[in-house]
Write a structure and sequence with these properties.
Largest sheet: 5 strands, parallel
Order of helices and strands: EHEHEEEEEEEHEHEHEEEEEEHEH
Structural class: alpha/beta
Number of strands: 18
Number of helices: 7
Strand content: 15-25%
Shape: elongated
Radius of gyration: 23 Å
Mean pLDDT: 92
Low-confidence stretches: none
């Protein structure tokens, strides 16, 4: 109360000079590399066995059909060449306490627990692809696969091509996930181009509600697909495609709402394009992040401040980048990682 007013004593906080980056996918790697080049000490924590995140699982990267290893190479070289960056693989954050400028962090790794202190935290834990369980006979009919399964086949050297049908917006833009994941269409476009060019005689068709390819680069990807001979058929979500076949996929029946007629597409493979979703509270990072005050939006992604504060959270000293804040392509994730690093340096 004012009647008890007295001169307050100054509160000083010794700001720790380092930054903790949680997650070593493209966003986390870009953040760590930017901080390392600025001479800042970085603890880069990765739950998996090696850095790279989703890039390790992709055959090519859209737009432009780029090789993931070439995107990763300069980032990994920066990590190896910069002694200020400490990489902790097979490690999880189990505790964070403190506030902006001075966080106390506990890491659980393969060699036991370690403790460190840091001035800021960058959350780059990414998202995870949804498996299309319960949709289009996935898991019950051979030949019906997920988009990520196709990535693995291509990465392993897919030899059997033939006719392929992609089905977009599987288990998304519905009541359960009422959002567009943004990454599914670019992934389908670049893989459809790859299949068509590797076997020009095969029919490759993308069944869609509408193709999401915003910006000049993704529009160019769409035009490359049409020039390569990829066909596009728009369907009504109230009348979804029907998968044909008993022992294996033989084709797909779909009503083309633009032509106003039903089509039968012969195919030996159906690829289901699913969204990215938040990692959720079952993943062990989330309770820790919640402990320092990170909020999530209605879809479960980490919430950032509105308008121009695209990587800042309501928790001072904590920043979010990459697919942890919203599904994003590799280039966008890396740009956000650099932005988070710049904010942590402020």
């Amino acid at each position: 109360a004012l009647r008890n007013r007295e001169v307050s004593t100054d509160v000083t906080i010794r700001v720790q000079p380092g930054v903790l980056v949680v997650g070593a996918g493209p966003a986390g790697l870009a953040a760590a590399a930017a901080l390392g080049r600025a001479g800042v000490a970085v603890d880069l924590v990765e739950a998996g066995g090696h850095p790279g995140g989703m890039l390790n699982r992709l055959f090519r990267v859209a737009p432009g059909d780029r090789i993931p290893e070439k995107i990763l190479a300069p980032l990994l070289e920066t990590l190896q060449a910069n002694s200020t960056i400490r990489v902790h693989t097979r490690t999880r954050v189990t505790d964070i306490r403190g506030s902006a400028g001075d966080f106390s962090v506990t890491l659980a790794g393969k060699d036991g627990d370690t403790r460190t202190r840091t001035g800021a935290v960058i959350v780059a834990t990414g998202a995870k692809p949804v498996l299309p369980r319960g949709h289009y006979r996935y898991g019950r009919l051979p030949g019906v696969i997920s988009g990520m399964a196709l990535e693995k086949k291509l990465k392993d050297g897919l030899t059997e091509n033939g006719n392929t049908v992609f089905v977009q917006c599987v288990d998304v833009r519905n009541e359960k996930r009422p959002f567009c994941s943004a990454v599914c269409c670019p992934a389908a476009l670049k893989n459809a181009i790859r299949l068509k060019r590797s076997d020009p005689g095969a029919e490759v068709t993308i069944l869609h509600r509408d193709i999401m390819s915003p910006g000049s680069l993704l529009e160019a990807e769409y035009r490359r697909a049409t020039r390569a001979g990829v066909r596009f058929v728009r369907f009504d979500p109230e009348d979804p495609p029907r998968i044909q076949g008993d022992d294996h996929v033989t084709g797909v029946r779909v009503t083309d709402i633009l032509a106003g007629e039903e089509r039968h597409l012969e195919a030996g493979r159906v690829v289901l394009s699913t969204p990215l979703e938040p990692r959720g509270k079952t993943d062990r990072e989330d309770p820790v992040m919640n402990a320092i005050g990170l909020a999530v939006d209605t879809h479960g992604f980490y919430r950032v401040l509105p308008f121009l504060h695209t990587v800042e959270t309501t928790a001072a000293g904590v920043f979010v980048c990459g697919a942890a804040r919203w599904p994003v392509l590799v280039d966008g994730a890396m740009a956000q990682g650099k932005a988070a690093a710049a904010k942590a340096l402020d």
